[in-house]
Amino acid sequence: MSRSVAGPEIERLIQLLAKLPGLGPRSARRAALHLINKKDELLVPLAKAMDLAGEKIVICSTCGNVDTSDPCLICTDPRRDGTTIVVVEEVADLWALERATAINARYHVLGGVLSPLDGIGPDDIGIAGLVRRVAEGGISEVIIAVNATVEGQTTAHYITDQIGGGEVRISRLAHGVPVGGELDYLDEGTLAAAIRSRTPF
Amino acid sequence: MSRSVAGPEIERLIQLLAKLPGLGPRSARRAALHLINKKDELLVPLAKAMDLAGEKIVICSTCGNVDTSDPCLICTDPRRDGTTIVVVEEVADLWALERATAINARYHVLGGVLSPLDGIGPDDIGIAGLVRRVAEGGISEVIIAVNATVEGQTTAHYITDQIGGGEVRISRLAHGVPVGGELDYLDEGTLAAAIRSRTPF
């Protein structure tokens, strides 16, 4: 702000809110005012929730998920298929698959993808941990669920090189037409893949 | 979420973040993950800033601004023109005018506009406080800077009825072409107003 209109406490709140993804300087101001106007319903509970999260949240040392216990709820859930590991780039991807209740297995969060241009090599993401989990045995399938980007696919190939050759089946997500998607809006690569992988009707 | 993927602390954080304006359920999850990933740089400082804001922020009993002191910094600033009051709907409007360094005067935040359909009458917004401030004397001009909506203009007329007739000059914001605006995209009302209020070149 070109001129300070309020005490430094409000300015600081706006500055920090603006660092959240999806909030720019303008929406951060709006969010700050909303918080101030709803002090008891929102500001105070959110501050408490964040305090608690800051205290309690840890990274699962097995799979890289975020949770309040280590190992995380997913790694310790006996109702999950412990023989299958779904490899994802980020915790957000894990959450997306869980929301879809796509599979009832365990996960492995890489925390990134290989990207030589950005200086991100195999040691910078959780590949060693995945190799270790597979080597420990008991795993029958690894599903590589990384994004369909160049870096994602490079990472998928690297992982296949590292853990392939043994008993473990390695698979990746199917390519095809998104459910509800219109063909007219899809790129040629997706359409070609959808034709190639067509299924009997 | 259809299935709980993490402890209740994270779920609660996401739920509360989703109540901020501009954040939906999806961006709230993204914001929560961002906070968790940047615990020391963002989560902890933001929780502290919110705690502090919750403790310290008050509504100015003179003008309705939010600040950490009552009367607020603007009401007590001796370098401001105390004879002019700018009437705005919300604190956000006050901030917008201050960012523009549009005027160096005092403000009066109504906290809403007259809206009979929503059951909002003169007693529900800060009109009585404005009438009192004007009646106490020392005010030479009241600039009504409410939004150019039907409710805003109704409110402006009501205020004019309440405080008009005395020595105090009452004015409102000029209508016209926004700076940087393209005529082609403007509505007829704005263009007509811009022609009517044309200024010598």
From TrEMBL, chains A, B:
The keyword Transcription does not apply. GO terms for molecular function: DNA binding; zinc ion binding. A zinc finger (C4-type) spans 60-75. Pfam families: RecR_C, RecR_HhH, RecR_ZnF, Toprim_4. GO terms for biological process: DNA recombination; DNA repair. Keywords: DNA damage, DNA recombination, DNA repair, Metal-binding, Zinc, Zinc-finger. It comes from the Bacteria. Residues 83-178 form the Toprim domain. Gene3D superfamilies: 3.40.1360.10, 6.10.250.240, RecR Domain 1 (1.10.8.420). InterPro entries: DNA_Rcmb_RecR (IPR000093), Rcmb_RecR (IPR023627), Rcmb_RecR_Znf (IPR015967), TOPRIM_dom (IPR006171), TOPRIM_RecR (IPR034137). May play a role in DNA repair. It seems to be involved in an RecBC-independent recombinational process of DNA repair. It may act with RecF and RecO. Belongs to the RecR family. This is Recombination protein RecR. The gene is recR.
